[in-house]
Write a structure and sequence with these properties.
Layout lengths: L1 E2 L8 E7 L5 E8 L2 H6 L5 E5 L1 E2 L3 E2 L1 H7 L1 E3 L18 H8 L7 E9 L4 E14 L4 E7 L9 E4 L7 E5 L4 H7 L2
Parallel strand pairs: 4-8
Antiparallel strand pairs: 1-2, 2-3, 3-9, 4-12, 5-6, 7-10, 8-9, 9-10, 9-11
Length: 178
């Protein structure tokens, strides 16, 4: 992947990557500079999953590669049909609201019966790629033997992407230590 920058305040950058067919593909990323991220007064908080199909854990890949995604890059945004709840359409609509500087927590459902989830990773969004349904993340080292994973209330967060939430929410403060 090659990245190109015009200047420190550039918000859209071009990314070229090699597809499986050997062709170069160009897509657009919305990106903020570190200064813009720090100056942002309003940031949103998001909760996302990393278990594909309930048993394929993508978290190690996400941490190693510095991103999170939920849909294949060629997945089209579904047309608005008034869907509600946790449909793919609703989640894709949520995705379009993620911005650089927002916070992302990766969760894993521990028990539906007990309504508990584990917070497995926390990061700061540094870029959003709307063409590939991917966000690039600076992951923070929050889980270690000295700092075990946090178990928090589930509160109905059972699909791949939930948010936006605000820092003023006590539940979000518990999740993000905000």
């Amino acid at each position: 992947m090659s990245l190109s920058f015009v200047g420190p305040l550039q918000k859209v950058r071009s990314v070229q990557s090699l597809s499986s067919s050997g062709r170069h593909i160009e897509c657009r990323l919305f990106e903020a500079t570190q200064l813009e991220i720090n100056m942002s007064e309003t940031r949103n908080y998001w909760l996302a999953g990393a278990m594909f199909g309930g048993n394929d854990d993508k978290l190690p890949e996400f941490i190693e590669r510095g991103y999170w995604y939920c849909w294949e890059k060629n997945a089209e945004k579904t047309a608005s049909s008034g869907a509600q709840g946790n449909s793919v359409e609703v989640q894709q609509d949520r995705f379009t609201k993620i911005r650089p500087g927002d916070r992302l927590a990766i969760k894993k459902i521990m028990s539906i019966a007990d309504q508990k989830m584990e917070i497995r990773a926390i990061g700061i969004i540094k870029a959003v790629d709307f063409d590939e349904w991917r966000v690039y993340v600076n992951w923070l080292p929050i889980i270690s033997p000295e700092f075990p994973a946090r178990i928090v209330d589930l509160k109905g967060v059972v699909s791949s992407l939930h948010g936006p939430y605000q820092q003023s929410d006590p539940w979000i403060q518990e999740i993000f230590c905000a």
